[in-house]
Amino acid sequence: MKKKKATVRINFKAKVTSVIRDRADGKCSVPRCKNPTRGPAANSSGSVNLGMACHIYSASPDGPRGWGDKDENFIGSAENGLWCCQLHGSVIDKNEGEGYPVEVLFAWKALAEARATKLINDVPSPLGWVDTVELLRLAGAKRLPELKLWRYTLVAGVHLTGQTSLMQAAAAVTHSEYVQRFATTKFDTVPAEPSFTARVTYSTVDTVDKWVDVETRGSLIVRTEKDRKCLLPPGDIEVVYAEDSELKSLDHEDDLDFLTRLLRVDRSALFAIAEAMDVRLAPERLYFREGVLTDDEEPERTRTRYKPDGERYVEAYVRRSFGTETYSVVFNGLSTSEKGRLIVALLIAKARRISEERLTLLIVEDPISNFDKSNFLLLLNVIKDQPFQAIVCIPKFRYSDITIKGAEGVSLQPLDELEPWRLCWLPDQLYDF
Predict the structure, then answer these.
(1) How far apart are CA 34 and CA 208, in angstroms?
(2) What is the pLDDT of residues 352-368, one digit of tens each?
(3) Is 82:20 a contact under the CB 8 Å cutoff?
(4) Please, which residues have CB within 8 angstroms of residue 296's CB and are 6 or more apart in sequence?
(5) To 10 degrees, what angle do helices 102-121 and 14-23 make?
(6) Collapsing DSSP states into helix, strand and coil, what is residue 341?
(7) Average pLDDT for residues 389-399, to the nearest whole number?
């Protein structure tokens, strides 16, 4: 394809602009924005337009987001248009579009159009957008960290910046036990003020502006939706996460018990998730069979393996190919990095399936602590093709491979794999020591 001249600019035709506006029901497509885009004019018969049709891929090849691999027909089509209020229509192109990549804008467009569709024929949609994760109260902290999320967010920072606390806070929206460490063991007293409060703010097709707070009061963990106490986790959002303490099997568990607990699913769902794993990240096929023990004196003789409770022990295996040969390796025979890849592949498969039903946020932190650079970049490539939002915490010993520290702060290395990602750097420690 010939290189496009920088002087080329493809503006939307009037009919295309109308389609872009109408597909968003005339509302700004930026999640949680309530700015009007049209209304009555000063005279009694006229109207005024306060909105604008914005290009996702830029109107010109040298614009903030360029043309990518798109041709002129796509650039000028309604498919490439985002309806915005004047404020956000201007903001998304500022500073060379920094913070507003095409992946984010297309996700916002899809959410806005799904909302309009719901108004027409009440078709449900799992689309949504998680906007922020923030700590509102943390006993003894000198500051309270906040994450502004994009479609794909990388998180890093100096030691003791609250990174894990933020991840656990987000996950607690779905599973409150992730903030159990902030609660006390005293069941007989409930303090007037919480010792820990976190908030996750998001939008769905049904709700433009929503937040869920998670707080600890003594031994109690309480969720509220816009100040209304929740009896159950909210049904319109799922956070998929696995922390370090969950990555080790318990003494009474076999491999099947361990993986169902880790993924928080039943056996049937685990088998389905194993079948749906992305082969780019975990090329091994996962399967299960009853465990056996070998007689040390007579290796050809085996006997059934049992758990402490007397049930048969089920082992997980991965099937590998080497040339024309196929062989199996028991799950516990894998290296720490190999186990991490397999676990993350399972988490991704779970998140992908849940995202068909409701807004889904995947958080990847502890399982990748031993990833080398190639496996880490591979993970980012796999996630960027998924239909959900994701947070990935950069392992501390990978900082020099992924980030650059300059006069204006920390930024991402200019690598193709990092192009869709945005960095959130947590610069300060939470506590004075």
Answers:
(1) 8
(2) 999 999 999 999 999 99
(3) yes
(4) none
(5) 70
(6) helix
(7) 94
